């Protein structure tokens, strides 16, 4: 018999209380001497509780070509033809045809701010599209071009979220403003012309909406002429056979193809995923202890749950905002207000979307304001439970943000779980070997070509 959510909630709370109290006991059931097989058993039990009875299957990603089991937008069904097109367009610097300066033409792509080496997010505190110069090894070497002043730079006002596992996000952006359903049902009055959320009127979910608005917002385009020029016309025809030709080669269809590709970006080769599928040696004992803390007395899964260890929730945990000291342009006041900056609701101020947790080992910055530079710093911050941002007073803080009283050893184990068990080290499988324009990617400026060792075709 399946327990109701209410009864599961009572059971979870009760068990968490027992686990938390046990942390101070000398006979703590989770210790460095607990056998690996016993850790496996305890973790399986913890996952059964955290998933409200679903068990380990609740956390398993599908394969990236198992389209029927990947969460998708019913108005943009996943197909092989569409995803193949999107994979190329995501990396296509040839779409960069609307720059503010002529020298920026054909020098950037979606992957400029979402590259695989950094876990499909920016390698810098802020992503830079047009006006960026260089790449480095994982995007960390991209800097503002001296010929661009701040008003011309395409630079993000907040840390760039990852595209990894975005299939499990129905609303996107840190404030969740993109996506026509779920959290945004009832906010239609805010979808005004000229705003990013205006694209919600198309009726798509978050990933699709973001991909569509992202092309025009970041000075890219798709037209019948571009599709013909670069050789994408036949791919669009195969991906969108039901669209009339007059609507087939546009930023909307290009965005839908990109979103299709993004939904296949799953960290399904991470150690935790292998463990869930039966390879118990895929996680070390320290990582297993860390997982037990994550799903137990660390209370992490109260916000981070499901396959991507993310939810549709928003939480105010007092992290600092992006400041101008990081790059040439600081964060905007609205982006620093979180969900409340979009909705205007006071009780949602400073609440940001709960992010997914895979491949954080690749991330150089953490928090919406890039105020942390290591995962350990984030865990220690949450363990202290003291807000970093003076603007986020007790009135706004999520009640779950409180001192966790984890020991140093527990913090060590939790970091190991997050860094290594949730790390898929083979994300390069999602990068195409080339694109149809023959331009270098993810960037195509002269310094990036040198950094990437790329010679345009």
Helical percent range? 25-40%
Adjacency order of strands in the biggest sheet: 1-2
What is the third-level CATH name, the topology of the largest domain?
Answer: Cytochrome Bc1 Complex, Chain D, domain 2
CATH architecture of the largest domain: Orthogonal Bundle
Shape: globular
Order of helices and strands: HHHEEHHHHHHEHEHHH
For this structure, what is the CATH homologous superfamily of the largest domain? Answer: Cytochrome c-like domain
Low-confidence stretches: 1-27
Keywords: Heme, Iron, Metal-binding, Oxidoreductase, Peroxidase, Signal
Signal peptide: 1-24
Protein name: Cytochrome c peroxidase
Main location: other
List keywords for this structure.
mainly alpha; Cytochrome Bc1 Complex, Chain D, domain 2; two-stranded antiparallel ribbon; two-stranded antiparallel sheet; 13 helices; 2% strand; disordered N terminus; Di-haem_cyt_c_peroxidsae; electron transfer activity
């Amino acid at each position: 018999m399946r327990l109701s959510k209410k009864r599961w909630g009572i059971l979870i709370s009760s068990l968490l209380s027992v686990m938390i109290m046990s942390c101070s006991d000398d006979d703590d059931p989770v210790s460095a001497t607990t056998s690996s097989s016993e850790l496996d058993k305890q973790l399986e039990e913890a996952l059964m509780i955290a998933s409200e009875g679903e068990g380990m299957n609740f956390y398993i990603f599908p394969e990236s070509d198992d389209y029927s089991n990947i969460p998708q937008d019913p108005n943009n069904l996943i197909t092989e033809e569409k995803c193949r097109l999107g994979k190329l367009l995501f990396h296509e610097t040839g779409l960069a045809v609307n720059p503010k300066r002529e020298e920026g033409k054909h020098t950037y792509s979606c992957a400029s701010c979402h590259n695989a080496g950094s876990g499909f997010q920016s390698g810098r505190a802020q992503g830079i599209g047009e006006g960026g110069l260089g790449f480095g090894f994982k995007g960390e070497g991209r800097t503002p071009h001296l010929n661009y002043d701040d008003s011309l730079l395409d630079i993000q006002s907040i840390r760039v979220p990852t595209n990894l596992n975005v299939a499990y996000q129905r609303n996107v952006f840190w404030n969740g403003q993109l996506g026509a359903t779920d959290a945004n049902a009832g906010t239609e009055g805010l979808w005004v012309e000229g705003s990013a959320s205006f694209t919600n009127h198309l009726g798509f979910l978050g990933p699709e909406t973001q991909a569509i608005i992202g092309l025009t917002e970041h000075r890219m385009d798709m037209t019948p002429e571009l599709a013909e020029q670069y050789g994408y016309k036949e791919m669009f025809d195969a991906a969108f056979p039901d669209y009339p030709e007059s609507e087939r080669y546009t930023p909307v269809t290009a965005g839908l193809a990109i979103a299709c590709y993004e939904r296949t970006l799953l960290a399904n080769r991470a150690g935790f995923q292998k463990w869930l599928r039966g390879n118990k040696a895929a996680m070390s004992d320290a990582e297993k202890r860390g997982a037990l803390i994550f799903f137990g007395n660390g209370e992490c899964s109260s916000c981070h749950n499901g396959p991507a260890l993310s939810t549709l929730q928003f939480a105010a945990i007092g992290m600092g905002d992006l400041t101008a000291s990081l790059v040439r342009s600081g964060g905007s006041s609205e982006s620093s207000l979180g969900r409340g900056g979009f909705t205007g609701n006071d009780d949602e101020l400073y609440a940001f979307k709960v992010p997914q947790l895979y491949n954080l080992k690749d991330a150089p910055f953490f928090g919406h304001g890039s105020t942390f530079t290591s995962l350990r710093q984030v865990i220690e911050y949450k363990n202290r439970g003291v807000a970093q941002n003076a603007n986020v007073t007790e009135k706004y803080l999520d009640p779950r943000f409180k001192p966790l009283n984890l020991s140093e050893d527990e913090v060590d184990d939790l970091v190991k779980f997050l860094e290594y068990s949730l790390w898929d080290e083979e994300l390069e499988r999602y990068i195409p070997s080339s694109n149809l324009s023959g331009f270098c990617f993810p960037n195509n400026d002269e310094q990036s070509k040198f950094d990437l060792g790329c010679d345009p075709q």
